[in-house]
Design goal:
mainly alpha, Four Helix Bundle (Hemerythrin (Met), subunit A), 10 helices, 2% strand, globular
Length: 265
């Protein structure tokens, strides 16, 4: 009897590993939904902060799952559903309450198109995952939904920041940005995934310092830091496109050279 009590566990180690990342994901859902409530109350500053926190959690839950070997099919589907809410539905509602409602039915249609594109992008991502690892894993196909969700919020974030360089007509700019981001979400434009960054051991301390510095700036100059980060990300899209095509071209040339070498032999 004593031996049986020793072996008895309320939750197995394997189940615990699966539950932990899923808890992070569900917290992200709650924060994403809360951002809509803040927008309803016209507390747009809190809405933006909630979306940013949801994006940080989204970046951590998958990495935590892989680190503790707690990945699961349920977690994968749950993560996608969370992304639709936090980076599809929530940003659309926030921007509708802030500016797109001025366009009436057209504004609501733009929101619907954006949310549908987020859902399609995530569905394609789920279908494409699980393939054999390759250098292509360093690139996303299209803009990822968390990045898209933050980008469409950029006009609102810009208005809350201290960076007031340009006088932007938000009523004109916001719907155009929504359409552009919607197209980028479902496009096949390669963007950096930053999943498999290999950092030399002697550079780890500098990477940690850079991360701490960035989060420090994010805490002190929240909206300024987000605006600058968004601009850098936009600039990186054509850079990643050129880099991908160059790698793809080099690989094709290498394959052709190998085939010619085999023919000679």
């Amino acid at each position: 009897m004593e031996q049986q009590n020793k072996n008895f566990k309320l939750v197995s180690n394997k189940k615990t590993r699966v539950i932990l990342p899923n808890m992070f994901t569900l917290i992200g859902v709650c924060i994403g939904l809360s951002s809509i409530k803040f927008a309803l109350d016209e507390k747009f500053t809190l809405s933006i902060i909630a979306i940013i926190v949801a994006a940080i959690i989204d970046g951590l839950d998958g990495r935590i799952a892989r680190l503790i070997q707690g990945t699961s099919k349920v977690g994968k589907e749950l993560d996608s559903l969370t992304d639709v809410i936090s980076f599809g539905v929530a940003p659309a509602f926030i921007m509708y309450f802030w500016k797109l409602n001025e366009l009436g039915r057209i504004g609501w249609l733009i929101c619907l198109i954006y949310v549908v594109c987020v859902a399609l992008r995530l569905a394609r991502f789920n279908v494409n995952t699980g393939k054999e690892p390759s250098w292509r894993d360093n690139f996303f196909e299209g803009v990822p939904s968390p990045a898209g969700g933050v980008i469409v919020l950029m006009p609102l974030i810009y208005s809350l920041s201290d960076i007031q360089i340009l006088n932007i007509n938000q009523s004109f700019f916001v719907p155009i940005l929504f359409v552009v981001v919607s197209i980028l979400l479902i496009s096949k434009v390669p963007t950096y995934a930053l999943k498999k960054i290999s950092v030399p051991r002697n550079m780890t301390i500098f990477l940690l310092l850079a991360v701490v510095l960035y989060f420090g700036l994010l805490l002190i100059y929240t909206f300024n830091a987000i605006v600058i980060s968004g601009l850098i990300y936009f600039i990186m899209i054509p850079v990643s496109f050129i880099h991908f095509n160059r790698l793809n071209k080099n690989l094709k040339e290498q394959n052709v050279a190998n085939e010619e070498h085999e023919d000679i032999l």
